[in-house]
Amino acid sequence: MPLSRVTLIQRIRDILEDHPFETTGDAASGTSTITVADGTMWGPMNIGEFQEDGDTFLSRSVSGTTVTAVRSYEGTTGAFHAVGSRLWKDPDFRFSQIDNAVKTILRSLWPHAWRKLDVSITPNTTDQWFNGNADSIDVFQAVQRYGATNERIGFYTTKYWGRRTGRLVIMERNLPTALVTSGVGLRFPEGFYHSSNVVQVSTRARIRDSVTSGNYDDLVDGTMAEAVVFGAVAHLLVGKEVPRITQQDVRQGDRSVGPGARVAASSYYRALYQQTLSKLRRELEQEMPYTAKE
After folding, report:
1. Tell me: the pLDDT tens digits for 36-56?
2. Count of domains in the chain?
3. What dihedral angle (degrees, nearest 10) is formed by the CA atoms of 247, 252, 253, 255?
4. Model confidence over 105-118: pLDDT tens digits?
5. What is the pTM of this model?
6. Is 73 a member of any domain?
7. Which pLDDT score, from 0 to 100, does residue 286 have?
8. Cα–Cα distance between 14 and 20 in angstroms, integer?
9. I need a surface site. Which of 86, 108, 183, 246 has the fewest CB within 10 A?
C-alpha cells in the first residue's frame, strides 16, 4: 500500500521536533490572498505552507482574516485549497526540503533495496526475444507450470543464481526497440518446460521517488518507511549545520544549538538508517530471494 507523503513528512517533523503553529486556511489557484482562521497570528514575512502539498507563500500584509502574500514561493505552485485546509506557519524545515530529502534517500536505496516487477511471457515458436519491463534490472525468479495436468513447476535460472538449477533465462537491457518495445528482452535459449503455458518472470527494479495523488508510488509502510525516515532526518540535520561550522560562526542559525550538535545527531540517525536498511534487505531477500555470484 503506497504511503502518504503528508504522513511521512509528519513523521520526519516529529523526530526533528519541528512543530510549527498549525491552523486552517483556504486559497484560490494563482491568487495573492489566503483566508486564514485568525489573522492576528500572521504578519509580514511569515512563511505559510499548506500541509497537503507544501504550497508555500510569503506573507506581505494582513487585513482581518485575509493574508496578502507572494504565492508560488520557493518554487512551489500557488494551488487551490478548500476551506479548512491545514496550514503551517514558519516551519523550521520546509515541506519541499523534507520531500527532497526523502527523494534523495529513495534514489539511494538501490542496490540495498528494490521493488518487484512481474512479467508474463507466453511461449511461441517464432520469437527468440520476449518483451520485458523497461525498469527491470535483473531476474530473480522465473517459473512455469507443466506436466500432464500442469502439476509440476519448472524453474528457469540465470548465471547469477546459486540457489537452484533449471533451464536458462537471459535478460538483456538496451536492446533495439524494433526487437522488443521496452528495450529489455528475455530469452530462453534452452527452451520451455511447456509449449504454451505462461512463464511468470519476477524481476528487481529500483524504487522510484515519484508521487501520485499525494502518495509515494513505491514507498510502503513498515521497515522501508522507517529506513527512509531515518535517512531523511540525517540528511536534513547535517544540511542545517552547514551555515555554522565553527565555534566562532554564530551569526547564522539557531544560537540555542551548539556548533556540531546537529552533525552529531545526524551521525546517530545515519547509523539508524544503515541498521534499518540492513534489516530491510534481509526482509526483501526472504520475500524475493536473490543470490548474486558476480
Report:
1. 999 999 999 999 999 999 999
2. 3
3. 60
4. 999 999 999 999 99
5. 0.84
6. yes
7. 86
8. 11
9. 246
